[in-house]
């Protein structure tokens, strides 16, 4: 959209950055793991590098590769430093260095692994860097390789001298033999003999002078301009630098792991994620409790942030419902959880505190009835209106919040799936309360919730932070929309410390008694589709 009402997206960038930062900080364990791994790697590298020392020696290579014919050749072109660098790191030089160090030739390969030969740019200097486990060995190795290279290059130059001298001597012998033969062919002519003799002597003198020049040349390969000394400190960076590098690398690794964990995490972590996946508003967020108490009903009995969150949820539901109250609300969770009944009970108490006549319907046949865990009003303390409640409905004392009626299924599991929705329909049709709160089995595990959703004014979804997956919320939105129900929104539950673990242990250790207490059970007849109330 263009025009004067166009909003610049640049103002959303700080919010996006803060959101990304919050997503990363949710995975503090990954960041801490990366930092620990980085510090351990830095410490390990520091320990390894602590026991290694490096000594350096430098050799100035003489500016000639052919010391016997370098006329009109520039000094920079008289030696190939790349070739000399490869020769210095060759096995032949390593064998000479092994002899210098008093080791066998079989150790030449191990010595080569510890050697590093470099050539500084625009120079005729070879730098020998030798690493050993002690300063003295490092210095001896660097000097041994420098001397071995010079000895190898001197040997190559001496071999070139011998080859050149041998060639000139062969020329001298050939000239002498040729002159003798020529004298015999010319006969006894004196003039002829003198001319041949002078020419031969001149050529032989030239060749002898060349031999003298060859032998007078210096065959030394170069000079050691820097001898290796025993280093005072280990090679490489020290402890502080390595630890700082490890810390920085670990932090980068931790941020990367946190980002990957956040990108691959499909659980609901915030209200924005729940709102985007469910495409419905978030009515409230239940804070995490400091303790895992056994009391199911807290509104009207105890205070706290969680109790006030229930009251705020009730006020918001009253705004979305009819003018007389919140109407008929189905409280359900995507999958099995323990807080669904708690949310329904406290929501009913909060609505009763607002002045509504509330009926709580427990339509979950797979769990023990809510009435067994609620503070029921004694028989002698009931008002005439409470005594005239329909059979199966019992008044609940919500303390300062007032009272509300409860119709429980008692958890017998005797219903078929179609019977639950039919029974709830009968109860809702006969109820004259302003507000009815229904709690039933999980929506994604049983079809009861979809059938009940058609008979209520709205559905309130209970979403567990850090447990419920976004795919489940998308499925809930599609199923409720296809069934014709009205999805009001969701309430986020931060949970309780160790609440899920204790609930799981409670379910494993719980044993149903042989004789259960008499609890009202609402059942549906399979023949005439009527409701009957009996005592179980």
Short description:
By secondary structure, the chain is of the alpha/beta class.
Low-confidence stretches: 1-8, 410-418, 509-536
Number of helices: 16
Euclidean distance between termini CA atoms:
65 Å
- Tell me the domain tally: 3
Question: What global shape is seen?
Answer: rod-shaped
Please count the beta strands (DSSP E, at least 2 residues each): 14
Describe the protein's architecture and organization.
The chain has an 8-stranded mixed sheet with strand order 5-12-11-6-10-7-9-8, with helices on both faces. It is built from 16 helices and 14 strands. The chain folds into 3 domains: 20-48 and 238-264, no CATH class; 52-226; 271-378 and 388-449 and 462-472 and 488-535, P-loop containing nucleotide triphosphate hydrolases (Rossmann fold, 3-Layer(aba) Sandwich), CATH 3.40.50. The chain is rod-shaped and about 165 Å long. 47% of the residues lie in helices and 15% in strands. With 536 residues, the protein is of the alpha/beta class. The chain crosses the membrane at residues 29-48, 239-260. Keywords: Membrane, Transmembrane, Transmembrane helix. This is Polysaccharide chain length determinant N-terminal domain-containing protein.
